[in-house]
From TrEMBL:
Gene3D superfamilies: Immunoglobulins (2.60.40.10), YVTN repeat-like/Quinoprotein amine dehydrogenase (2.130.10.10). PROSITE patterns: PKD, PROKAR_LIPOPROTEIN. This is PKD domain-containing protein. One of its GO terms (cellular component) is photosystem II. GO terms for biological process: photosynthesis. The keyword Membrane does not apply. It comes from Caldimonas brevitalea.
């Protein structure tokens, strides 16, 4: 081994005595005193086959010139010099020794122990793509992911099974014809560590029409309010409520055709969630610009100020429930009857009431993510959805919550809906790739499988986000998906096929949200940046 270019940062361990692995004193029989230290470009663990850099520094009390001799403990020839390079071929435990020799005759020895391990190939390799069935010639986003335990950069190589190959972690590919393709991803760490995974991709004819039979046009209603709407509730087919910024709350008694104000009593708050038990009795959750301190089973959390209000006369008057609720602004709440309900909000906030909202008990969620949605099937079984990638579930009324992280990396979750204690759906999206994700559970949220949504291109994606407006499950295999442009799709076979049920026939931007289906099978939604309300019969 000889001198070479220093290609790594050296880790220096100084001041360690002889025999302790770093530096040592020397033989002073010559009347001179010598010391030496070892530095190297790795810690106490390195990978076989990688070039390592070793440096020695030392001196004598007299300042006599010194030389360095290296023994790497693997049978390789001795190396000389203050800076050397060496590669260990085999795994094992080695002791690296450097000896300082001076012209005065003084010597010093330092040792470093080093464990050499074999290279580890990349693991946990997965392929993400937007749909299990895609049309020919469509631009499809593929993303590869893998983990390298040695910290090596990973090269991703793709074989799409159609004669085309590519390199890169994230890319776009179009299949030339209908058929079944086996997409293979190879992850290479550059040091002989290679892993592969593959997924079958079904490509259908590009001539397949988008699902448009029986499509209706949403009826659009003006509310007289031009600000942002965030929440709605339809306790009966004719009676509905919408709420939004500036403390706005409006009521309709004719299915949305006309609206009258029912303000909550403050203009510096935003109505975030609504729940009505019947046409006149309900709750509203607001958030404001203040902050509140609340305690979550030992945690002190600072959050947006929230207030719950209750009405028993259709919103003509509102009673503040401040005495029993001091949490953050609730993003959602759900009641299984007039007494028992749950609220969720920022910083993993969950609270339960057993007296119709008069008092609340905080529950430990186990997460500090913002919780967007909550739903209970009965007094014991329920779910809460975070803003990003997690679904919480409980089987004891919220006394304990268990988190499941969805199997794909997401930027945002858009909606959650369960039809019974086993069957549920979650929708989300990734902004960077403009991809929608749809997940389904058949075991109450213990596991989730990604499911095909409407065919690629059906969901409008002409804005800065691929977000969905909302979802509503109406049966074990039945789901409605609302995209933000107002297109409403339905499946009755767990996503195997989709029908376009309603459209606005207009470019409304990314604004139509909060899908509700009333007891007469009329769907309602709100245009959150325009103060408009939409409705359409699903029969």
């Amino acid at each position: 081994m000889g001198m070479g270019r220093l290609g790594s940062v050296l880790v220096v361990v100084a001041g360690v005595l002889l025999g302790c692995g770093g530096g040592g004193g020397g033989d002073d029989r010559s009347g001179d005193r010598a010391t030496v230290e070892i530095s190297m470009s790795s810690g106490a663990r390195a990978v076989a086959g990688r070039e390592l850099v070793f440096a020695a520094s030392g001196s004598t009390a007299s300042g006599s010139p010194v030389t360095f001799e290296w023994n790497f403990g693997d049978g390789a020839p001795m190396a000389t010099g203050g800076l050397v390079q060496h590669t260990f071929s085999d795994q094992g435990h080695y002791t690296v020794t450097v000896t300082l020799r001076s012209q005065s005759g003084a010597t010093a020895v330092a040792r470093r122990d080093l464990d050499i391990v074999l290279n580890t190939a990349p693991s946990d390799i997965v392929i993400e793509w937007p749909s299990q069935t895609i049309p020919a010639h469509a631009a499809v986003h593929f993303v590869g992911r893998a983990i390298d335990a040695d910290g090596d950069p990973i090269t991703y190589r793709w074989n799409f099974g159609d004669g085309q190959t590519a390199t890169g972690r994230a890319l776009i590919h179009a299949f030339p014809a209908a058929g079944s393709y086996n997409v293979v991803l190879t992850a290479d760490d550059g040091h002989g560590g290679v892993s592969q995974t593959a997924v079958p991709v079904s490509v259908v004819s590009a001539a397949m029409p988008l699902p448009v039979p029986e499509a209706k046009t949403w009826a659009k209603h003006t509310t007289g309010f031009s600000g942002a709407l965030y929440a709605s509730a339809w306790p009966t087919p004719t009676t509905g409520y919408v709420g939004g910024e500036s403390g706005t709350l409006l009521r309709s008694e004719d299915g949305g055709a006309t609206w009258v104000p029912r303000p909550v009593g403050a203009t510096d708050v935003t109505v975030r969630a609504l729940h009505f038990f019947d046409a006149d009795n309900g709750l509203a959750a607001t958030s404001g610009g203040h902050h509140v301190v609340y305690h979550d089973n030992g945690y002190t959390v600072y959050s947006d100020w929230g207030r719950l209000l209750k009405t028993s006369d259709g919103g003509r008057t509102w009673v503040n429930l401040d005495a029993g609720y001091t949490g953050p602004g609730a993003s959602d709440f759900h009641f299984i009857d007039r007494l028992n309900g749950w609220a969720v909000g920022a910083n993993g906030f969950i609270a339960k009431t057993s007296d119709g909202g008069l008092t609340w008990t905080y529950q430990r969620s186990g997460t500090k993510q913002h919780l967007r949605n909550v739903q209970f099937i009965d007094a014991l079984r329920g779910w809460a959805m975070s803003e990003k990638d997690t679904v919480l579930r409980t089987v004891d009324g919220g006394a304990t919550w268990t988190a499941t992280v969805l199997p794909f990396e997401l930027d945002y979750l858009d909606g959650m809906s369960f039809s019974d204690d086993r069957h549920g759906w979650v929708a989300g999206h990734r902004i960077f790739m403009s991809i929608q994700f749809l997940f389904r559970t058949t075991d109450g949220g213990v596991t989730w499988q990604r499911m095909p949504g409407p065919p690629d291109g059906a969901i409008h994606d002409d804005g800065p986000s691929a977000a969905l407006g909302d979802i509503v499950a109406t049966g074990p295999n039945s789901l409605y998906i609302l995209d933000l442009s107002g297109d409403l799709y339905a499946t009755t076979d767990a996503g195997a096929s989709w029908n376009l049920k309603a459209t606005t026939n207009a470019a409304n931007g990314y604004a139509i949200t909060d899908l509700t289906i009333d007891t007469a099978r009329t769907a309602h939604a709100i245009h959150y940046i325009g103060g408009q309300v939409f409705s359409v019969s699903l029969d």
